[in-house]
Design a protein that fits this description.
Shape: globular
Number of domains: 2
Distance between the termini: 18 Å
Strand order of the largest sheet: 2-1-3-4-5-6
CATH architecture of the largest domain: 3-Layer(aba) Sandwich
Mean pLDDT: 96
CATH class of the largest domain: Alpha Beta
Strand content: 5-15%
Number of helices: 16
Radius of gyration: 22 Å
Largest sheet: 6 strands, parallel
Helix content: 40-55%
CATH superfamily of the largest domain: Glycogen Phosphorylase B
Length: 390
């Protein structure tokens, strides 16, 4: 089988390529600049020539690219994409329904949205870990010195360039600002259901448009309301939650934070800078007693990549509630979730004092990922759909 692999700066590249090689697939790597451009005649002609020359069984990419789908549909050749980002605005492109597409998404809520509209090109597929590679990574004495911690959090704080809300907020009128603050505060009290978009009436939309104009793509069906909810408000809510939670924990415990945003360092929180995804992150998870996950609010039900990363590395996972986790993992056996700030603090205290129970949960979660959530298994599931038509 021949696969044309769209190569860009994505998570998972080397892990899925390892699986393709193990299956003896012929891989043609096509370097791609993920610049967000959906129409580029020069690129389209170049890519079409490559497809005609190589004649792959299918094209594969992490995340979905409308311009790739457009060319694949013209040739035609099957286009397989596996989406790990949320929000992923490209999924609102008109190209989504191209018959060449096989789009695998990790959030069951997102999948349900498309399925209920009768869209046949989208499939549900959770993310994966390369447990074989991760198991071979063992922290040495120097790594233990750097990464050992009671509590580790790896992730963005959304206090820099990613925070559109802070750009918008100074220009908001008082009513719109107060309304949005109330909505965000209410949403922070609820896990498992996102109601932000449904709260944005036309008056509020007008206020945000004046303060921070945003226009949907002219070749997609995303609405301005969707864009403000997902890219502005959900990110701000996530930022507020992460800041508040880490600040609270830091008052009682030592926390190691790994993030590209260097300016956040409240009492008790050691900001250690960013991590290399392949070489350092798994070691950090192995060295932490508790690995904390605080999900980006735009991921409504799905299992975030970070949760799979932690359990795949054999780390103990303490996370907010995500519905899809319960489809594959057992709370208190494979991982632990918290239901409130107080519950989180109590569970941190408990599991820091109960080493054997904590290690048993980490081992069980790792075993389940190694048995049911590897790249080998996920590729087999995709191939069954794409090649065999199931």
């Amino acid at each position: 089988m021949k696969i044309l692999f769209i190569e860009w700066k994505s998570f998972g590249n080397e892990d899925i390529l390892e699986t393709f090689r193990r299956l003896k697939y012929n891989i043609v790597r096509f370097k791609y600049e993920n610049d967000g451009v959906r129409h580029n005649e020069e690129f389209e002609k170049k890519f079409e020539k490559v497809l005609i020359k190589e004649r792959p069984d299918f094209v594969f990419s992490f995340n979905f690219f409308p311009i790739i789908s457009k060319v694949c549909n013209t040739v035609p050749v099957k286009y397989v994409s596996w989406v790990y980002d949320s929000p992923h605005i490209s999924l609102y492109s008109y190209t989504l329904i191209n018959p060449c597409n096989y789009i695998f998404i990790f959030d069951s809520k997102m999948y349900e949205t498309y399925a209920l509209q009768g869209i046949k090109t989208v499939y549900y597929l959770p993310l994966a870990a390369n447990t074989k590679r991760l198991d071979e990574m063992r922290p040495n004495a120097k790594a233990h010195e750097h990464f050992d911690s009671d509590i580790t959090f790896v992730g963005q704080m959304y206090i820099d360039a990613h925070n559109f809300y802070d750009r918008m907020e100074p220009k908001l009128d008082d009513y719109t600002k107060g309304y949005l603050e109330a909505v965000m505060n209410a949403q922070m009290q609820v896990d498992g259901y996102n109601f932000v978009e449904s709260c944005l009436n036309q008056n509020i939309m007008d206020g945000m448009q004046k303060a921070l104009p945003m226009e949907p793509h002219n070749d997609g069906i995303e609405t301005a309301k969707y864009m403000y909810a997902q890219y502005v408000l959900d990110r701000k809510i996530t930022s507020l939650e992460r800041i508040d939670i880490l600040t609270q924990i830091g008052k009682e415990h030592k926390v190691k934070l790994f993030t590209p945003e260097k300016d956040f360092h409240p009492e008790g929180v050691e900001n250690c800078g960013k991590l290399d995804y392949y070489q350092e992150m798994p070691i950090a998870f192995k060295c932490a007693k508790i690995n904390l996950n605080i999900t980006l609010r735009s991921i409504e039900k799905g299992i975030p990549l970070r949760c799979i990363d932690v359990m795949g590395a054999g780390g103990f996972l303490l996370t907010n509630y995500q519905e899809d986790m319960l489809m594959f993992f057992e709370p208190g056996v494979d991982f632990v979730y918290y239901e409130s700030r107080q519950d989180l603090l109590e569970k941190i205290d408990y599991y820091l004092k109960h080493d054997e129970e904590r290690r048993a949960i980490a081992a069980s979660g790792h075993e389940k990922v190694a048995k049911y959530h590897t790249f080998d298994l996920r590729v087999a599931e995709m191939i069954k759909v794409v090649i065999e038509g199931d």
